[in-house]
Amino acid sequence: MAAHSCAGCVALQDPHCAWDDVTETCVAVPTKLHDNDASKTLFQDIINGKHKKCKNQQ
């Protein structure tokens, strides 16, 4: 993924990637779907490109 921050990753508005708060990386969503805590640790907003849990949003 090209994004190196939470805000940058979420701003991509890509349905196939999300910010992983545990590893602090932009990850492909299918790689984390098996994780029970995925809804708590993956940040994504395809419509607006911003997530309230991302710090220093543009």
TrEMBL record:
Keyword Metal-binding included in the entry's annotation: no
Compartment list: Membrane
Keyword Disulfide bond in annotation: yes
Pfam annotation, one family: PSI
SMART domains: PSI (SM00423)
GO biological process, one term: nervous system development
The PSI domain, residue ranges: 2-55
SUPFAM superfamilies tied to this protein: Plexin repeat
UniProt protein name: Semaphorin-1A
Originating organism: Bracon brevicornis
